[in-house]
Write a structure and sequence with these properties.
Strands 1, 6, 8, 10 and 11 form a five-stranded mixed β-sheet that branches. The chain has 137 residues and is mainly beta. It has one helix at residues 121-128; strands spanning 2-8, 14-15, 18-19, 28-35, 41-48, 54-57, 66-74, 82-83, 89-92, 105-106, 110-113. The protein is elongated. Strand 2 (14-15) and strand 3 (18-19) form a beta hairpin. It has one domain: Immunoglobulin-like, CATH 2.60.40. Belongs to the Ole e I family. It comes from Citrus x changshan-huyou. Pfam families: Pollen_Ole_e_1 (PF01190). Keywords: Disulfide bond.
């Protein structure tokens, strides 16, 4: 079982009670596992997020000798279709041979960019970024 949350731009935090993430229902994701020696695709399974932006995917078998990733496929939201390049995929370890005792594995957050920044994003960036990094605001 793999669990993950999907977020929208820029990160899952809130400021002054303004929410800057949205749960994305029906976003499609895929787990891919490739042979670690030749990178040939050995296994894949698709999934979809629920109303909380979370997906739970049952993984068949142990993938000890494979490199596995969860990656974004599509967003159902017209104004939020571009995957954040830094959050478009996440490596996951899908084996029990590494000492894991549970069959539940977690991936890092994934997300899509909204087409337009939220109105308070410039204010938020000014608060958290160093002055020399906010020239574009």
């Amino acid at each position: 079982m793999l669990r993950e949350c999907l977020y929208q731009r820029p990160s899952p935090i809130s400021t002054n009670s303004r929410k800057i993430k949205e749960e994305t229902k029906s976003a499609r994701v895929r787990i891919e596992c490739k042979d670690k020696n030749n990178l040939n695709l050995k296994y894949f399974v698709n999934g979809e997020t629920d109303s909380t932006g979370t997906f739970n995917i049952h993984i068949d078998g142990d993938h000890q000798d494979q490199i596995c990733y969860v990656k974004l496929l599509t967003s159902p939201l017209a104004d939020c279709k571009t995957a954040d390049p830094g959050r478009a995929s996440s490596q996951v370890i899908l084996t029990r041979s590494n000492g894991a005792v549970l069959n539940i594995h977690f991936a890092n957050a994934l997300g899509f960019f909204k087409n337009r920044p939220l109105t308070f994003c410039p204010e938020l960036l000014k608060k958290y970024l160093p002055q020399n990094e906010i020239k574009f605001i």
